[in-house]
Design goal:
five-stranded antiparallel beta sheet, single chain, 39% strand, alpha+beta
Length: 189
């Protein structure tokens, strides 16, 4: 009985220390992504991750909640959700199942197998991909930690400079050609 009370007290202490946190990440990075390894106490939680984009970028936000496997009793997050909001423009995106958005990954895929052995199921992860305007962003990560000691997740944020649309590229090339033409005319006069 005393052991059960100690475990319950530890779980409550972890919840108050881990629940409903706010993180700030620097993006873009030289690496493919920046990553947060976060934990939450037992029960419902909502964490917020803030970042800023100084110009348009193509990118992704990927949430991998620890789920099932050998860690089921100690570390599990159910009903996870991911919402991304550009607080400057008000635009909002909802995370989709990786299997739906990108395609189901075979368990024989080496990266998927490594994640699976660590307790993460790629096919049950959530992802948001696309082109994102400049602005201040907040990613809301929520769920219910059902493990005895709460749960953990990994959130990845990867952004690269957006490729201009074909019309924009054509205008840039036309502008450069015009500048070149003016420069060559000045030399001849």
């Amino acid at each position: 009985m005393r052991k059960l009370i100690t475990i319950a007290a530890t779980a409550l202490a972890l919840q108050s220390a881990w629940a409903n946190n706010t993180y700030t990440v620097e993006v873009p990075t030289d690496d493919p992504y920046t990553r947060i390894d976060a934990g939450t106490g037992y029960g419902a939680f909502t964490d917020t991750v803030n970042f800023e984009l100084d110009q348009p970028y193509t990118g992704l936000v990927w949430l991998l909640p620890r789920n099932g496997g050998l860690n089921f009793l100690l570390d599990n997050i159910n009903d996870a959700s991911l919402t991304l909001r550009n607080d400057t423009t008000g635009q909002t995106w909802l995370g989709e199942s990786y299997a739906t958005a990108v395609g189901k990954v075979s368990a024989f895929n080496l990266q998927a197998l490594a994640l699976d052995l660590a307790g993460f199921d790629v096919n049950k992860s959530l992802i948001i991909t696309g082109d994102f305007d400049a602005g201040d962003y907040s990613a809301l990560i929520s769920g219910k930690a059902t493990g005895l000691l709460g749960g953990t997740y990994v959130a990845k944020f990867g952004f690269t400079q957006a490729i201009p649309e074909p019309g924009t590229s054509a205008l840039m090339l036309l502008g450069l050609a015009g500048i070149g033409l003016l420069a060559s005319r000045r030399r001849t006069h």
